[in-house]
Amino acid sequence: QVQLVESGGGLVQPGGSLRLSCAASGSIFSINHMGWYRQAPGKQRELVAAITRGGSTNYADSVKGRFTISGDNAKNTVYLQMNSLKPEDTAVYYCNADIYTDGIGWHDDWGQGTQVTVSS
């Protein structure tokens, strides 16, 4: 019953900015952490950034200094502000969350993905 819905993807020029959002909804009791992964065609999915409920963050080396992850606990929403975008950032970005649901327990959930394309 838990859903993660991403939004904010699109086509941008190199050096541009984009802000992704992911909202979790459903029978959520608690969320431990949320994060963003990305996957380019033929490539393995990789962690981009993650944030805990307490605000601790973790970034892939390739995006440090350019991307910022933040969250709104009250809204069960995580954001990814992407600046100075590069063509190599092109991928489908997926939201991930560690969620506790009554009657089930802790489980990982994934969003449907949102396409980010960086091209001139």
Note down, in words, how this protein is organized:
By secondary structure, the chain is an all-beta fold. The protein contains no helices and eleven strands. The protein has strands at 3-7, 10-12, 18-25, 30-39, 46-52, 57-59, 67-72, 77-82, 91-101, 105-110, 114-118. The strands form two sheets. Strands 2, 4, 5, 6, 9, 10 and 11 form a seven-stranded mixed sheet that branches. The chain has a four-stranded antiparallel sheet with strand order 1-3-8-7, with no helix packed on it. Strand 7 (67-72) and strand 8 form a beta hairpin. The relative contact order is 0.33. The model has no long low-confidence stretch (mean pLDDT 95).
Précis, in short:
With 120 residues, the chain is mainly β. Helix content is 0%, strand content 58%.
Shape: elongated
Q: How much of the residues is beta strand, in percent?
A: over 45%
| Mean pLDDT across residues | 95
Q: What are the secondary-structure elements, in order, as H or E?
A: EEEEEEEEEEE
Coarse structural class: mainly beta
> What's the total count of β strands?
11
Ends distance: 40 Å
Q: What does the largest sheet look like? A: 7 strands, mixed
From the alpha-carbon coordinates, what is the Rg to the nearest angstrom?
A: 14 Å
Question: Which stretches are low in confidence, meaning pLDDT under 50 for 5 or more residues running?
Answer: none
The share of residues in helices is under 10%
Number of helices: 0
